[in-house]
């Protein structure tokens, strides 16, 4: 009876160990499969997003190039592009010339103002000299008249 119990216990233990091992393997297999699917879904999602982004970027670039090619392939488009570039360059040059002329005018104004001040000062000095000379001439005339009378 003791041996039968031991054998039965050993057999039950063996079956339980086998069932537990099988259950754990199945559970582990299930977890790994779930984890693999999750990773695969994430990877697929990221790849899809990256592909969409790249395709969008490529599409926008292609559309931009196509638009440029369409504009430049038509004679009027090329002429228009050249005319726009020339017009822009002319406008920039006009603005630069206008600013330069404003600087030149300001410089000329300053020079003319200095010249006016100098001329005023010279006129004042000349006026003072003329008055002094006229005053001396009067004195000389008066002295000559006095000498001729006397």
Structural description of this entry:
It is a single chain. The protein is mostly helical. Helix content is 98%, strand content 0%. It has two helices and no strands. The protein has helices at 2-73, 75-149. The longest helix is centred in the last third of the chain and has 75 residues, at 75-149. It is rod-shaped, with a radius of gyration of 55 Å. The model has no long low-confidence stretch (mean pLDDT 87).
Fraction of residues in β-strands: under 5%
Radius of gyration: 55 Å
Relative helix content: over 70%
Terminal-residue CA separation: 188 Å
For the sheet with most strands, the description reads: none
What global shape is seen? rod-shaped
- Total DSSP E strands: 0
What topology emerges from the helices and strands here?
Blueprint: H1 2-73, H2 75-149
Helix pairs in contact: 1-2
Structure in a nutshell:
The chain is mainly alpha-helical. The protein has helices at residues 2-73, 75-149.
Defining traits:
single chain, 150 residues, mainly alpha
């Amino acid at each position: 009876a003791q041996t039968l119990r031991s054998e039965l216990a050993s057999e039950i233990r063996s079956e339980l160990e086998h069932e537990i091992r099988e259950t754990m393997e199945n559970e582990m297999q299930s977890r790994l499969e779930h984890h693999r699917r999750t990773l695969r879904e994430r990877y697929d999602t990221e790849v899809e997003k990256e592909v969409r982004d790249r395709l969008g970027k490529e599409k926008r670039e292609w559309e931009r190039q196509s638009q440029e090619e369409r504009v430049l392939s038509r004679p009027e488009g090329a002429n228009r592009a050249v005319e726009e570039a020339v017009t822009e360059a002319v406008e920039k040059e006009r603005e630069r010339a206008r600013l330069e002329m404003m600087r030149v005018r300001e410089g000329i104004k300053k020079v003319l103002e200095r010249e006016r001040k100098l001329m005023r000062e010279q006129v004042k000095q000349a006026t003072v000299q003329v008055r002094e000379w006229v005053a001396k001439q009067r004195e000389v005339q008066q002295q000559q008249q006095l000498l001729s009378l006397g």
